[in-house]
Design goal:
- The chain is mostly beta strands.
- The relative contact order is 0.26.
- The strands form two sheets. The protein has a five-stranded mixed sheet, with no helix packed on it.
- The chain starts with a strand and ends with a strand.
- The chain has one domain: Immunoglobulin-like (Sandwich).
- It contains one helix and nine strands; from the N terminus they run E-H-E-E-E-E-E-E-E-E.
């Protein structure tokens, strides 16, 4: 169970619709958000939902410090989509579970796997009790 989230404008207007499609309780990362902070307790899984456009080749990956178990991404449409639609907005869902109390950082990186540059990075500080 998530305890507290701080990060300025957590939900940008373009992400508000995506929040409706994100798993219940997930933290939806806004389009302009570069960092954030989450407070939780050891053993509880925190879900992060990051927006991406389908068909562009960009994918999110996570890099986490030791002590954080990360799984994902699971991809899902950010809004209802008609069959056959291409190039729509998606959410990449990551599950992050801290093993013990402490302060950790998880970075989400948006890039095309075949390119050396990144399109975007989001750094989240997790304070675990």
């Amino acid at each position: 169970m998530m305890r507290e989230v701080t990060a300025g404008a957590l939900l940008a207007m373009s992400v508000a619709a995506a929040a409706a499609q994100a798993p219940q309780g997930a933290i939806v990362i806004g389009d302009d958000q570069a960092r954030g902070a989450v407070e939780t307790i050891a053993g509880e899984t925190v879900q992060f939902a990051l927006p991406v456009n389908a068909g562009t080749g960009y994918v999110w990956r996570a890099e986490a410090e030791a002590g954080l178990a990360v799984s994902g991404p699971e991809e899902r449409p950010a809004a209802p989509v008609s069959p056959g639609t291409t190039g729509y907005r998606m959410l990449s869902i990551f599950l992050v579970t801290p093993a013990r109390a402490g302060a950790y950082t998880v970075r989400f990186i948006l890039a095309r796997p075949w390119e050396k540059t990144t399109a975007r990075e989001v750094s989240i500080t997790m304070t675990v009790k």
